[in-house]
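Because showing beats explaining, we let one protein speak, sequence and backbone structure tokens together, and leave readers to judge.
___
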Amino acid sequence: MSDRLEVVALATPHRLAAGDDLTAVLLDAVAAAGEELHDGDVVCVASKAVAVVEDARIGPPEVDGTPDDEAVRTAARGRAAEIVVDGPRVLVTRTHHGFVAANGGIDRSNVGGGLIDLPADPDASAAALRDALRTRTGADVGVVITDTFGRPWRLGQTDVALGVAGTAALRDERGSTDLDGRPLEVTVAAVADEVAGAADLVRTKGAGAPFVLLRGLARGTPGTGRDLVRPRDEDEFRHGGATAVRAGLAARRTVRSFAPDRTVPAGALARAAAAAATAPAPHHTRPWRLVRLRDVTRTRLLDAMAAAWRADLGADGLDAAAVDRRLARSDAVLRAAPELLAAFVDLSGAHRYPDVRRTRAERDLFLLAGGAALEAALVSLAADGLGAAWVSATTFCPDTAREVLGLPATWEPLGLVAVGWPATATPPRGPQDPSEVLSER
């Protein structure tokens, strides 16, 4: 590390345009600041300067030079690799580079009208500029292409590195020790982002200084901007805002095959029960009930249910072999799942009516509340990475379920929920067609 660092803004009166010689404009700015490039220097370049020169403009310039917010959002959606947040205040997308930024980094300021995208390959642009500077000056310099990004949970923006060449992107301190001799296990400094942030301290958006010179930096092992992009499968914050809520709902998938050697954390079941308790219910009741079945209880219940099912299917005229196949499919889920929950709704809080119509409607209200509670529990389990399958079996033999479990007559079964870690990766749910569900009259 360096104990002294010099940071110099390099202003230029030149308004960059597509096809300009970026290297020449940069060297003119260096000379105008009374500086020369030396081995070990690092030059930061605003990504917009690179994008303009590389003609990353999106569409023709607007007549008045000021595209509206919706034009920016539309352009960002069309270029997004993934929507991270699509809310009323902000659109955040993941770009093809892997960067996560408001409107995918698409901007409209300091571009002379219209919209400008990020450079197509910031690492390649940084490497090309570094090579050109070495050819023209003989100096071995590092190059960092920077852009201004917002940050979750923090106000304000800061500059980060998009492209890196000839200087470190990360400084890995894992394996070393702190002042107390404790080993460091997770410390990996984002050096190139820190360099970008330092560069932004000596310029503003209106300063006309797309370049910044840093001298005295220990450049370390050269890296790239790609080194700073977290792999998607390690991203614990893949979505945010309203999009996170919708993604959480869509993550609930029916899983019937579970990893046999992985136990379900008790905390996940408790969180699922707490989520169930948020469901709407009639008359300010809390009628939802989840019963975690111990192994012995599970066996007793499933055996009793199997006997009842055999009797029903036999009465339907199914032969014994067909009955065995159906039971085997059910057992493959319910007996093999690491955890099995029995879901009920308690009708003790239901109002009593003298007529069948209102009595049936009152019961249906409680069953609807139970369905909402089940969905909330299933979504919570999916949020913890668990798989679950709702099986309606107990609703066909309510008396058997209540008798085996010793429950009051007011507890109405809503089925069983098999829970466990998915044996295989669960594919993402595709887009849903709302026209099948939503209509107007």
Remarks:
- The first strand starts at residue 6 and ends at 10.
- The mean pLDDT is 92.
- The chain has eleven helices and 16 strands.
- The two ends are 70 Å apart (CA to CA).
